[in-house]
Amino acid sequence: MPADPTALLDRGAGCLLGGAVGDALGAPVEFLARPEIRREFGPSGITDPPRPALITDDTQLTLFTAEGYLHAWVRGKHRGVWGPTETVWQSYRRWLTTQQLDGPAPLARGLLADKRMYASRAPGVTCLRVLQSATLPNTTSDSRGCGGVARAAPAGFAPTPQTAYQLGCEFAALTHGHPSGWAPAGALALIVHLVAVRQRPLGDAVDQATGRALRDDQETGLALAAAAALAAADSSAARRVREARAFGRPVPAGGPSANSVESLGAGWVGPEALAIAVYAALTHRRAEQFPDALRLAANHSGDSDSTAAITGNILGALHGTAVLPREWLGMLELSDVIEQTGRDLAASCAGLPFDEEHYLLPE
Questions:
Q1: Which residues constitute the signal peptide according to the record (predicted)?
Q2: 82: closest CA among 186, 163, 165?
Q3: Facing residues of 269 across strands?
């Protein structure tokens, strides 16, 4: 059943803001091994984003994905011309401008008009290299990296589950041409659509995305299946721990853990990044568990900002903005732009009014 329009607007904002706070939480520990994280931040690892909570290229490109998609949506409505993959490619090329210049040109529009976007946050080499081309590529690199899935959440607000999956794949394939680079992006977009727009339970959404991804890329499908199975086992162990404590029995070992996260990989490639995020979300799917889900997804030896960002996308889409810690939002870079962009995505999906003129960009 489609979500109530007001709730969907909030879930759109929650999806993008959740991804951004996860991104900011994981950024300081990306590239650090887990023992190094503990030495620097203590036995619990990093528990809160730094102040200010700075986003990385993952969130920057998520915003440009959303802007490119909304440009296509508005252009289709007013001019009868669709083509979101083309407009997202153009949007990624605009993002590249922010990595090359110090500030906006006098007549800049949209995200390019915001000086805060002109910050280099360790962008991925694959994206930088592929986007140097002035034309939409017919073939791309065969990268399996997680850069495609980390920016794919906006595709979840396409009008149907099938379109969400397709666009997620196509947007990622612009720079990550290996099936393991683009299939996870389609799977994430499908999960976001199912929980935010169709109000499906998270477990059902993951199962459906697993089956769909298996048709395109076995590695992605098997990684999702492994994450779901591990989450079920660790969640059962956590229940046994709670029951033992409640009844005064000896407390057994078990439950969600960093060891389980690292058994799924480091997150540098797309299937691993999505699997880690799905595991963290499934083991912490209750609203009050949102901060701990992001902490679990960030405190591992690997691509911590991407895995925590994807976790935040999923749980923000599931619950909306109420689960986001107010303190984290208060220090989040570009929170105003991120929130409004998420609401506009959801409005386009729900058929609600938004500032369409803002997305009629020069081509």
A1: none
A2: 163
A3: 145
Q: Is 216 annotated as a binding residue?
A: no
Backbone angles phi, psi at 145, to 5 degrees: -60, 165
For the stretch 208-232, pLDDT in tens is 999 999 999 999 999 999 999 999 9
Residue 305 marked in a binding site? yes
Cα-Cα-Cα-Cα torsion 263, 268, 271, 275, nearest 10 degrees, comes to: 50
306 is in an annotated binding site: yes
**Residue 304 annotated as lining a ligand binding site:** no
The letter for the amino acid at 314 is: I
Q: Decide if 149 contacts 191 (C-beta within 8 A).
A: no
Domains and CATH numbers, the chain: 5-359 (1.10.4080.10)
The backbone torsions φ and ψ at residue 160, rounded to the nearest 5 degrees and listed phi first, read -135, 160
pLDDT, tens digit, for every residue of 294-345? 999 999 999 999 999 999 999 999 999 999 999 999 999 999 999 999 999 9
Q: 3-class SS at 175?
A: coil
Residue 56 is assigned to a ligand binding site: yes
Q: Quote the tokens at residue 224.
A: 């999702």
The model's pTM: 0.96
In one-letter notation, the amino acid at residue 160 is T
Distances 64 to 112, 173, 323 between C-alpha atoms, Å: 10, 15, 25
**Count of all residues that appear for the chain in the document:** 363
Q: Is the separation of the CB atoms in 165 and 212 below 8 Å?
A: yes
Place of tokens 């999923």: 314
Q: Which residue type sits at 93?
A: R
